[in-house]
Design a protein that fits this description.
alpha+beta; elongated; six-stranded mixed β-sheet
Length: 606
């Protein structure tokens, strides 16, 4: 009886264990089938290969339809280590077909074996011809992915157009839509309009058999998505003018910016020295980048929008306009100048010219003393009850001209320049200062800092008699009715338009009659200009020139800044004048001046 009972218990126990195991296995299978998405994805990942399909990047044209940036077909060579033929492949043939050095191929294959089922890129910028030869050989486990690479047909506008580079870890963390190996705009137009130019990626899923070989499209391609090409951009740049200006600025350090006053469109923008944008494309990009970075004067730095320069005498225009608006200056008011301005222990030198001067003549000859009087009259105006309040009023006017803040252009690295506030001087002078203390501001020196873009915008403001459109680089985007609305809005200064006429008269006289800008005269074009010589504590003075033409219905406003260039009329003026002549007449009638400027080399202190 006991033996029978024990056998019965053992049988029931065995049955219970079998049933329990069955329930556990069935539960696990059910869970995996219906609830565990990770397991499902893992299984699919083992059976599928996901390939990213990259779209062609949008192209960039100049205002006349000429290519500034275009895309050329190329390919990435990928490998899935687990898919390589176990019997091996002809390494020498693969290297010969693709141009990959054998040592690099073996190194990359060793890394790929660490993640045998993950696609890994082992070469970039494979040409179409190399891809066709590769396809003929049929290397198992290797495949190509279509990409595009940038080309710059004119080899101009390195800082302006920018370049494309592989996404960094920081970008991957910030923008999860990007993946390792993708390219992104790193500066200039390429960066500012990345979302427009980039397009949208597609995906293709390929199904594997049990041996890992590709059988074909998964679900007949129903899960695939098609890449959407990036949109093209028509820029505001005149390619011929850009090339011409870069040639003129070669051998100098500085910047030149030209704007169409009626629209705010940037016609050309040069930062010198610049670089050939094609150097930052292809397999030699890393080497070229290192070479450019090690070049003196920082070619990758866009001085046109980021530098902070003292505006020098070009800023006297602003002082005259504020003085008239504030009622402390009439165009007929005369002030003496006997070699400069003196008050107590403070003095400001000036070059020789007739004295006394009215406003027109003071602008024309760039008289320092005249604008010292005007500046002090603004700050010491008794209706404000003190110089500090008067300084605040002056500063508000200056900001309305676009100084001391970003203009809001479509350059991501646009600088704001610098306009000191009263707290700055309170800290520096422990609260004890007056209009004489800050007198250097009267002639665009001291703590004033402006970008060349801001100075070109000042030329556009005077050309328009009191307003400007935010300077911008893009004219039209494919498939978009209009560009950002902010570029169509007029921005007015705090100065009444009627006060601009005496300033315009002075700038016209400076070029066409009796002033410091006579070298910019172009018969029949009514050029208006203002020279500037900015003091430089580290060497020779900087040369700057601000101009627009014609006087009525102006077509171009320009600012040129040449570091260590000396007098405004010696370096910046001839460059600006030649650019204006070329743009307005489509020719150069002063070949002797062109040759002199092209061969002008500015020497810098070590």
């Amino acid at each position: 009886m006991t033996d029978g009972h024990d056998a019965y218990v053992r049988m029931r126990t065995l049955q219970a264990v079998v049933v329990l195991l069955f329930v556990v296995l069935a539960g696990r299978v059910g869970y995996l089938q219906f609830f565990d998405a990770d397991a499902d994805r893992q299984a699919r990942r083992q059976a599928l290969r996901r390939e990213v399909l990259y779209p062609p990047r949008g192209e960039v044209y100049d205002r006349n339809g000429e290519f500034l940036i275009r895309s050329r077909e190329c390919y990435d060579l990928m490998v899935v280590s687990s898919d390589i033929d176990p019997r091996g492949f002809d390494t020498a043939l693969l290297c010969s077909v693709t141009g990959i050095p054998r040592e690099r191929l073996e190194r990359d294959l060793a890394r790929a074996r660490s993640y045998p089922r993950a696609p890994r890129r082992i070469a970039s910028y494979i040409s179409k011809e190399e891809k066709l030869r590769f396809d003929e050989c049929g290397f198992r486990g290797f495949y190509t992915v279509f990409r595009t690479v940038r080309q710059y047909p004119r080899n101009i506008g390195g800082n302006l157009l920018g370049y494309v580079g592989e996404v960094s870890d920081a970008i991957l963390r910030r923008y999860p839509d990007y993946e390792v190996g993708e390219y992104v705009g790193m500066s200039g137009v390429e960066s500012a309009y990345e979302k427009v130019l980039r397009g949208r990626k597609g995906v293709r899923y390929l199904e594997r058999d049990v041996g890992g070989a590709i059988r074909g499209s998964y679900m007949e391609g129903r899960m695939d998505t098609v890449p959407v090409p990036g949109r093209y951009i028509v820029s505001t740049i005149d390619a011929r003018l850009q090339l011409f200006a870069e040639e003129l600025m070669r051998g100098k350090v500085g910047a030149a910016v030209a704007i169409e006053p009626a629209t705010g469109e940037i016609l050309m923008m040069v930062s010198s020295p610049t670089y050939d944008p094609d150097q930052l494309v292809g397999n030699e990009r890393t080497r070229h980048y290192a070479e450019i970075m090690n070049t003196s004067h920082r070619p990758l730095f866009n001085r046109a929008v980021s530098s902070r320069y003292p505006p020098g005498s070009t800023f006297k225009i602003v002082q005259g306009l504020i003085g008239m608006q504030e009622g402390v200056l009439r165009p007929t008011d005369r002030h003496p100048c006997h070699g400069g301005y003196r008050a107590g222990s403070v003095s400001m030198k000036c070059h020789e010219h007739d004295s006394p001067a009215d406003l027109r003549y003071a602008v024309s000859t760039s008289c320092n003393a005249y604008f010292c009087y005007v500046f002090r009259d603004i700050l010491d105006n008794p209706r404000y009850g003190g110089v500090k309040n008067g300084f605040d009023v002056w500063r508000d006017y200056v900001e309305s001209f676009g100084f001391g803040r970003k203009l809001g252009s479509d350059f991501l690295n646009e600088g704001s320049g610098s306009i000191p506030d009263r707290s700055f001087y309170d800290r520096r002078y422990r609260g004890s200062w007056n209009s004489l203390t800050v007198l250097s501001l009267a002639i665009g020196q001291g703590e004033l800092g402006c970008t060349p873009l801001q100075m070109a915008n000042l030329a556009a403001i005077v050309a328009n008699r009191g307003y400007y459109y935010i300077p911008h680089i893009v004219k039209r985007i494919e498939g978009v009715d209009s560009i950002d609305r902010r570029f169509y809005e007029r921005h007015y200064t705090r100065v009444d338009p009627r006060h601009f006429e005496p300033i315009v008269e002075g700038m016209w006289s400076s070029v066409n009659r009796d002033g410091s800008s006579v070298g910019a005269r172009l018969p029949g074009l009514d050029v208006c200009g203002k020279t500037g010589t900015a003091q430089n504590p580290h060497g020779r003075d900087h040369s700057t020139f601000l101009s627009f033409a014609p006087r009525d219905n102006p077509k171009i406003a320009i600012s040129v800044y040449v570091e260590n260039g000396g007098w405004g009329a010696s370096a910046a003026l001839p460059i600006a004048s030649l650019i204006e002549e070329y743009y307005l007449t489509d020719t150069i009638r002063r070949p002797w001046l062109l040759e002199r400027v092209k061969t002008m080399q500015i020497h810098y202190p070590k």
